[in-house]
Amino acid sequence: MSFTQDVPHMPMQTEADVTTNPFLRDRYAIAGVGETEYLRGGGRTTRAMATIAVRRAIEDAGLEPSDVDGMLSYQGGDSTFAPFVAGDLGIRLNFYMDVFGGGTSTEALIGIAMGVIEAGMCRTVVIFRSMNGFSQVRIGGTGVRAAETVSGDMLHSRPYGWISAGQHFSFTFMRHMHDYGTTPAQVAAVKAIHSEHASNNPKALYRKRVTVEEVLASRMICEPLHLLDCCVETDNATAIVVTSLERARDCRHVPAVIRGVVGRVNKPRMDMHYQHGPISDVAAKYARERLWSNAGVGPDDIDVTGSYDAFTFTTMLLLEDYGFCKKGDGGEYVSDGTIRLGGRRPNNTSGGHLCEGYTHGVSMVVENVRQLRHDADDSCPIGPDGRRQHTYDYREGGCRQCRNVELTANLSWAGAQTTSGLVMRRG
């Protein structure tokens, strides 16, 4: 008897099965954002970096440390724990939680923050991620602390050569190419376009523009991934402040109002997701109805996306299965100019994980918050009012603020088998 015959039938969730919770729509907002520099070999502990990023996020909101009484973090690798960061800043917490997870942590933690505030457990929550992702614990299982990462599921996967994220995900990427004729050149456009955005981002690690041809000419890492299809590795910390919309309106900036969120939606199999087909489908297929129903909008309403780009392929798959284009049309969607600054729906306007720095998705939320404020921190001149005078000239070294941004979506990835999502509007 084959393995698949032993697995019980698991019916696909339909739109009618989705239970949504729109009653939290427009009740919470991101009031502040903060980050350290994106470096390689910064020489700082994750505790020091987290303290800097959290303090900057609180200051960005116009708050004092005493205004914060909740803290959440994505804990993993060489990260640090929330109570230590709180103590360093003189914050007494009414609630904290350090959550282990992958790239889907950010949006899920935002949902948890909304829930604990709604439950009356605290009033204002800071979420942070701090990681020495280049100099200490590298994602591929190498680096000075590599031995510490060989545990749990990796004990199963390492003997089979499934060590890096690219090796785990290559099944889905290759199958999409087989099923729909997607080409490496189409998907390489994601890197080329994100590099254009990063060239207008003074804090991006990689600011050099690259072409599709240069992506395809870079050395092969794991078929079909070339070196330039893969994200950067950086040492950094990032943070955001979540509070009620009522309170956020009294803060320093126009709030980024949370319309809807979904957290860690899974495919039927999490451990060996490729044993549940179609292999070329990702968890966004199951998350999208809940996200759009909670938010009260659809893909066509979104002005800017932040689609997780651990690899060029992840961006394409998420945009496709969240419904921004038809299944199988993702290659064309990411290569026809739609996601470019000045295009119909720009994506990862900071350069994302492929160019700016790797933060497990927090920086993508930070970027969309700034887009909603109409104040992306690019190279445009500062006016007399202290705000950037955006030129909307997207040539190299210029602007990266999109015109009239009202709605953004963040789409995250910890693998083909799980996703989180977030929709925000300008307050």
Notes on the protein architecture:
The chain is α/β, with parallel strands linked by helices and 427 residues long. It has a domain at 25-137 and 234-248: Peroxisomal Thiolase, Chain A, domain 1 (3-Layer(aba) Sandwich). It is built from 14 helices and eleven strands. The chain has helices at 3-6, 46-61, 82-88, 105-118, 154-157, 165-180, 184-198, 212-217, 245-248, 284-295, 312-324, 330-335, 352-355, 362-373, and strands spanning 28-35, 70-75, 95-100, 124-132, 220-222, 225-226, 235-244, 256-266, 304-307, 407-411, 418-426. The strands form two sheets. The chain has a nine-stranded mixed sheet, sandwiched between helices. Strands 5-6 form a two-stranded antiparallel sheet. Strand 2, helix 3 (82-88) and strand 3 (95-100) form a beta-alpha-beta unit. Helix 10 crosses helix 11 (312-324). The radius of gyration is 20 Å and the shape is globular. The termini are far apart. Residues 1-17 have low confidence and may be disordered.
